[in-house]
C-alpha cells in the first residue's frame, strides 16, 4: 500500500508529481497546461472527470491511470458531505419559473432571520451546518414574493460554500441564478454583490478571463474609478469586484494587470478599515499565484501583525491562511507551512478538515516534511488523511 492509497484524485496527482521530483510548473509544461490548472487539480478545485485528460496526466507522471483513480471516484467534493451537496443541487435546479404558483407566501422577516443565521455559519466557517440550512432556504428563495436582495443572498451563500467544497459547477449555477435576479432590479449595489460571487465561481471553474471581464465591467458600473466618486458602499463594492478581477488576472499570469487592479482597490478603501485588510490579503494571494512565493510570505508577515487583521471574518482569515501555507511550501519552508496549517485549524477547523483545498495542502505539507510535527500528524488523522505520510 502506498501513501497515495485512499486519497482523492487531485491529491494522488500531487503525490506522484512529488515522487517524480517535478515542480508544478514543470509538470504543467509537460501537459501543455498552466501552473494554475495543475494547482487547482491538486487542490480538488478542478476535477479530472474526462478519461482523455486523466490518461494524459498519468502519462506525464509515468504511471498507469488506474493508480490515480484507485477506489475513490474523482467527482466527490468531500467524503462526508456529498449527500448534502446533492440535496442543495436538487433544490437549486428546481427552476423558479416552472414551480406552481400556489406555493404559500414566505414571510420576508422570518426568511431574513434564517438567512442571517446561515450567513453567520458561513462567516464562522461552519460549512456542515450551512449545508443543512441551504436546501430549505433555496426552496423558499424560488418564491417571487421575496425581495430580490434576500434571494440574491441565498444564491450567494450557496455559491460561496460550493466553491469551498470544490463543487465548481454548482457554484457557477448558484452565482448565475443570483446574478439573474440582481440584474432584474435597478439596484447597482445588489448587482455588484451578485457579480462578485459570479466572478469567484468563474475563477473556481478555471474561467479566469470570463471572471476578469465580468468583474471589471461590474466594477465600472457600480462606481467610476476616480478619486472621491461614489458613496462608501459603492466604493467598497467596487473594491470587492476589483479584487476578484485582480485574482483572476494573477491566476492567468498577468502580473502587471493584477498589480494595477490591487492598487485601484487600495485607493478605494480607508487605510485603517477592514476593506483595506482584505485588499492587502488579496495582494498576498495574488503574489503567490504569480509564483513570487518569498515576497508573498514577506507581505503576509507584515499583514498579520497589524491591529486591523482580526477585523476580517474568521472564514476569510482561515481561507487566506491556506493560501499562505501553500506559499510557504512553494518557498521551501514546510515547517512554516505546518505552523500555518495548525493556526488555520485552531481558527476554523473545517477549512482544513472539510475543504478539498485544505486537505490537499495538508497532504503536501506532510509529503514534503522529512519529520512531520506530531501535532500536524494528529491534525491529518482528524482530517481523515491517515496515510499521507
UniProtKB/TrEMBL annotation:
- Gene3D superfamilies, per database record: lambda repressor-like DNA-binding domains
Q: Which residue range or ranges hold the HTH cro/C1-type domain?
A: 13-68
Q: Which SUPFAM superfamilies match?
A: lambda repressor-like DNA-binding domains (SSF47413)
Pfam families, per database record? HTH_31
Which CDD domains does the UniProt record give? HTH_XRE
Protein name per its UniProtKB record: HTH cro/C1-type domain-containing protein
Q: Where does this protein have coiled-coil stretches? A: none
**Top-level taxon of the source organism:** Bacteria
Amino acid at each position: 500500500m502506498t501513501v497515495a492509497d485512499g486519497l482523492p484524485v487531485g491529491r494522488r496527482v500531487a503525490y506522484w508529481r512529488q515522487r517524480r521530483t517535478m515542480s508544478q510548473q514543470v509538470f504543467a509544461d509537460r501537459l501543455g497546461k498552466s501552473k494554475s490548472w495543475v494547482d487547482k487539480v491538486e487542490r480538488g478545485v478542478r476535477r479530472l472527470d474526462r478519461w482523455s485528460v486523466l490518461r494524459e496526466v498519468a502519462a506525464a507522471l509515468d504511471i498507469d491511470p488506474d493508480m490515480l483513480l484507485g477506489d475513490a471516484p474523482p467527482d466527490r467534493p468531500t467524503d462526508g458531505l456529498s449527500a448534502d451537496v446533492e440535496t442543495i443541487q436538487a433544490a437549486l435546479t428546481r427552476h423558479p419559473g416552472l414551480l406552481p404558483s400556489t406555493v404559500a407566501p414566505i414571510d420576508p422577516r422570518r426568511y431574513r432571520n434564517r438567512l442571517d443565521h446561515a450567513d453567520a455559519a458561513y462567516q464562522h466557517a461552519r460549512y456542515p451546518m450551512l449545508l443543512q440550512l441551504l436546501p430549505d432556504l433555496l426552496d423558499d428563495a424560488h418564491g417571487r414574493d421575496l425581495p430580490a436582495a434576500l434571494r440574491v443572498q441565498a444564491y450567494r451563500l450557496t455559491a460561496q460554500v460550493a466553491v469551498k467544497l470544490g463543487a465548481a459547477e454548482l457554484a457557477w449555477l448558484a452565482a448565475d441564478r443570483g446574478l439573474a435576479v440582481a440584474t432584474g432590479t435597478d439596484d447597482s449595489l445588489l448587482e455588484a454583490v451578485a457579480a462578485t460571487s459570479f466572478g469567484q465561481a468563474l475563477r473556481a471553474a478555471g474561467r479566469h478571463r470570463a471572471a476578469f471581464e465580468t468583474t471589471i465591467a461590474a466594477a465600472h458600473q457600480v462606481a467610476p474609478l476616480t478619486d472621491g466618486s461614489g458613496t462608501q458602499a459603492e466604493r467598497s463594492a467596487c473594491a470587492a469586484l476589483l479584487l476578484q478581477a485582480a485574482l483572476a488576472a494573477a491566476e492567468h499570469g498577468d502580473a502587471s494587470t493584477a498589480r494595477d487592479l490591487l492598487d485601484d482597490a487600495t485607493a478605494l478603501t480607508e487605510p485603517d478599515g477592514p476593506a483595506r485588510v482584505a485588499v492587502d490579503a488579496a495582494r498576498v494571494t495574488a503574489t503567490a499565484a504569480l509564483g513570487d512565493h518569498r515576497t508573498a510570505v514577506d507581505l503576509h508577515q507584515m499583514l498579520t501583525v497589524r491591529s486591523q487583521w482580526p477585523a476580517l471574518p474568521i472564514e476569510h482569515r482561515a481561507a487566506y491562511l491556506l493560501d499562505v501555507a501553500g506559499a510557504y511550501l512553494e518557498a521551501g519552508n514546510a515547517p512554516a507551512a505546518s505552523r500555518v496549517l495548525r493556526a488555520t485549524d485552531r481558527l476554523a477547523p473545517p477549512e482544513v478538515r472539510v475543504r478539498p483545498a485544505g486537505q490537499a495542502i495538508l497532504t503536501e505539507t506532510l509529503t514534503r516534511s522529512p519529520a512531520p510535527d506530531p501535532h500536524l500528524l494528529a491534525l491529518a488523522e482528524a482530517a481523515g488523511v491517515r496515510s499521507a505520510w
